[in-house]
Amino acid sequence: MEDAIRAFVTFLEVERGASRETIRSYQSDLRQFLSFARTLRPADAAPPAPEEIDAMVVRGYLAWLDRRREKKSSLARKLAALRSFYRFLNRDGRAEGNPASEVRTPKQARPLPRVLTKDDAAALMECPEGTTERSKRDRAILETLYSTGARVGELVSMNMDDLNVRDGLVRLQGKGRKERIVPIGAVAVEALRDYHAPLSRHASRVVRQAHHPEFHRGITRHDTRTPVFRNNRGGRLTVRSVARIVEKYSRHLAGGRISPHALRHSFATHLLDEGADLRAIQEMLGHASLASTQKYTHLATDQLLAVYDRSHPRAGRLPGTRSEPQ
Question: Among 175, 177, 195, 233, which one carries the catalytic annotation?
């Protein structure tokens, strides 16, 4: 089964173009399942082959995870990883059938994603104070996330040649290495210019190529793969580092800390509030299906009801309606 897992990881990386985070997650989940399956066999027995796994083993695995008090969302993700793994094995001729498909996904609560008010979003953008390189970088990160609706993985993957500041556009590489071009606002562009001005004076020759004057007029023709957002050592920022940056500044907000994904939710919801077309939002978010984008129509309504319930002195909801006070 170890060989099958390695083959699946290679498939994800080479053919699916999955991100490093996705590959790491799949690999971790499958190795955990293999460790569990080994406990069901004698200590001196060989590891189980993929075709030896049945639905009972998968159900036992989920029950074991549940006893460890893992979240329902984690159980659902790990079951989905097993289903994908066996679909690959079926296509590759390594196994027949899919034991994970015979197991129902655990039901889970779907809380509303956190969405900032427009005032909170504006306040968050002002949190990085000062004129240090780090403050300018952090301000540019916040502005870019909120202005483009980019996933945090897409943000850290951005290179200098992905920016077209003349036309106010940025190229993002989404899931499955699918590229899309999205608008980036003037305020975010100015934050990026402010951040990169001092970098260009101290950068190496390769980095200076990425700061060619054409960067300020359009997309640079030098594909140097120079990251837009850099750590203190000059390397590319990680997803986790950006999450820490967003959490650090958002702790000053009334509702407490947020994740970078909350800025993506806020981007979509605020566009919808201002009358943007749902199809256009779908394109900017990089959703393959409109159904993924339609949740923001429900989100906008639920947020409106929540604000009404908190604010109006006679806003008690009728039993059975949404936002009923607890």
Answer: 175
